[in-house]
Amino acid sequence: MAASAMDVARPRGATDEGGRHGPVGAGRGFALTLVVTGLAGLLASWVIVLDKFHLLEDPDFTPACSLNPVVSCGNIMESDQAEVFGFPNPMLGLVTYGAVIAIGMGLLAGAAYRRWFWLGLQAGTLFGVGFCTWLQYQSLYEINALCLWCCLAWAATIVMFWYTTLHNVRHGFLPVPQGVRRTMEEFHWLIPAVHLGIIGMLILTRWWDFWTS
């Protein structure tokens, strides 16, 4: 079977004596994916944080991305869901997306990490995609508004999560049947595309009357 576009070579030291996993690096494609998605999420978080500060200074401030009653970043920022942990959600993004960029840059420079590190990244991206899914539900069905910068962060997190999962499946950190692994490698683009497509369809159908009016 031909290698996928995101395939990576097995790095030196993939397993140590006794069959335990040793340090594992990554190919350029996956490393760049982490850097690009991290930058996209960081940009979105940074813009939202700045707008939040402006909103705190001036309650009448209208963010540039508040375009209409549906696409209204201001409504999102003023909601209780925008501060789940007691501070603006995007401040968490400034830290986490920055960390992902650092990991990606390290991989581009030839870094290799052990199994516990990769599983830690898996857990982090799983939390991220789970949190984004909750925010998507809140945005669509509770707040009844959409933030374009939030959508960028959602998309970046989803792509980051699925390619991290692929990396960990490929190296055996997440055990799956051989057939599943080969399918994920061959159609590596399909799962994130479907995931993003479902969100797009939910957004389209949620405000269908508005989009078509």
Could you please describe the fold and organization of this structure?
- Helices cover 65% and strands 0% of the residues.
- With 213 residues, it is mainly alpha-helical.
- It has one domain: VKOR domain (de novo design (two linked rop proteins)).
- α1 (28-57) runs antiparallel to α5 (148-170).
- It is globular, with a radius of gyration of 19 Å.
- 31% of the residues are buried.
- Belongs to the VKOR family.
Q: Radius of gyration, rounded?
A: 19 Å
SSE string: HHHHHHHH
Poorly predicted spans: 1-19
The CATH class, by name, is Mainly Alpha
Tell me the CATH topology: de novo design (two linked rop proteins)
Shape: globular
Q: How far apart lie the N and C ends?
A: 49 Å
| Tally of distinct domains | 1
CATH superfamily name?
Answer: VKOR domain
Structural class: mainly alpha
- Strands, count: 0
Q: Please outline the major beta sheet.
A: none
Tally of alpha and pi helices:
8
CATH architecture title: Up-down Bundle
The percent of residues in helical segments reads: 55-70%
What proportion strand? under 5%
**What is the overall pLDDT average?**
90
